[in-house]
Amino acid sequence: MQEYLNFLKSDAIKDKLSDFLRKILSVARPRDTLGLTWLFMLGSIAWLITLGVAAMNMRTYLVYNSNSPTIGPIYYTFLTIHGWSAMLGLVPDAALAVILYSMYKSDLSVVHVRAITTLFWIANISLALALFGGPDMGWYMYPPLAITDNAAFQAFRLYHGATMGLAYLFLALNSAAGAMAALVLVVDSYLTKKKDQKINIFAAYGVAFSLVIGVTLPALTASELWYVLAIWFPSAIKVNPLLWVILFWFYGHPVVYYVPFPLFGALYYYIPIYAGRPLFSERWARLNIFLLAIGSMLIWVHHLQTFPLPTDLRAWITVSTLVLASGSGLTVLNLGLTILTGKGYNYKDPLGMTFLIALIGFIIGGVQALPLPVNLINGVVHNTYYVVGHFHLVIWTLILVGFTGVFLDLLKASRPNLEYGVKSRKLMLIGILLWTVPFVGVGYTMSMAGYLGLLRRVIAYPPMFTDYMQLMSFLAEVGIPGLVLTISTAIAEYLKAGSSASRVNAFSPSPPPPSFMAFKEMRETVKEIGNKPVNRGEKIGGK
Questions:
Q1: What is the pLDDT of residues 313-324, one digit of tens each?
Q2: CA gap 160, 358 in Å, rounded
Q3: pTM
Q4: DSSP β-bridge partners for residue 154
Q5: What is the dihedral of CA 15, 20, 24, 30, to 10 degrees?
Q6: Domain named Cytochrome oxidase subunit I profile: which ranges (predicted)?
Q7: Can you tell me the distance from the alpha carbon of 11 to that of 462, in angstroms, rounded to the nearest whole number?
Q8: In a 3-state reduction of DSSP, which class is residue 459?
């Protein structure tokens, strides 16, 4: 026992612990743009794990035959944790991670590194504190349930009274910090852009949609602060449900594009590389930024189709949504022509495969959205699993697979000597396909069930949908190991490259001094000249 205690007190253990702590601090307090990218990437992965665990718990409750009415509140708590972790945690962190990496790839830098780091921790810790209260009303936070606290219904399992207002204050800090971080990135991009030099298409999309985040996210902050005041001063402040919903959806529709549109920039950047030719039309791509950025902030009303809206407003919903869809269609056309007119797309490279699947996934998920702006169709499927299938297809393919592609390239940028081996590339490709195929199946199963009438966000559903629910859960269980396989294989290669680099630095003999190298090179040259047969007839030295 004493030997063990002495071992723990040894300098070797202290050195390893201090080295480990230094590495943790270097990630928690980055010093440059690449370090910030890592911080937001790891934050995204943490929220992805959280929402994934919540989702699998939800699916367990949905398919368990012996459920009782007491399971209902637990299910809805996990539903809200899943939604908040996704929309308030994963989405802003992943969007800013992709935007930061786009800046790095275009030689733009973050000037206010400490400010961005501080805002990251404020946003993520605040969201964690709000989630700790056990929210129970869905990620939309619609009034009046979202501020109800009585015997019949409680918006939070643990937070009541004034502490419920504190929870919404935490959420307001989360959204305000995200908005400020996005605006700081826009400013820093402007400050570090080289004069008379156009930033690449990846960063162009990243910076443009960082501005969209900075403009729309404050609407969520305002609605959350309204709740805080209404809870703390109920006699003086009242919540108008319609105005609250308008505020929320001004943020709530653009938020679904926070990650996809910066990833459009990634597709424009990487797909030409693996297609072996320049982008078919960079002019189309850059002009499309204006259509997508402006359009994403103007069509939020289509989320209110079940409200009693005027006929002219309904007409605007249909036209404006299809105009925005045309911008997405232009992206698909541009990238499709790039692939078809290229020298042969390199889908055998894991990065090439991820971005190809991200594009295909966006197509198959986006096509399902085209009927939704039509008033007659929307009224039928608005609150069904058809819509859930549509946006989850986009999430599981464009967002998660595209995000994985950016992560794989981030590993290579962080470790210049990293080259994925043949076996590792095969494992990553298998993992990508193992993830994609089952989850596309889940998406279409959801949409089919929704078309038949399965309502979303309900735990008590007709028995006819039991087989659909079982199939969704089974396919999800099959697909999850795929993404884990891809990411874990890449990380293993990253660590292997790091250890090999350390061994080279530690055990390779030091290079000889320049003077010795020069002497050795001169000696070899003299020896070569001495051994060369001389032609007596040739002139020496040009004389």
A1: 888 888 888 888
A2: 43
A3: 0.88
A4: 149
A5: 60
A6: 39-527
A7: 65
A8: coil
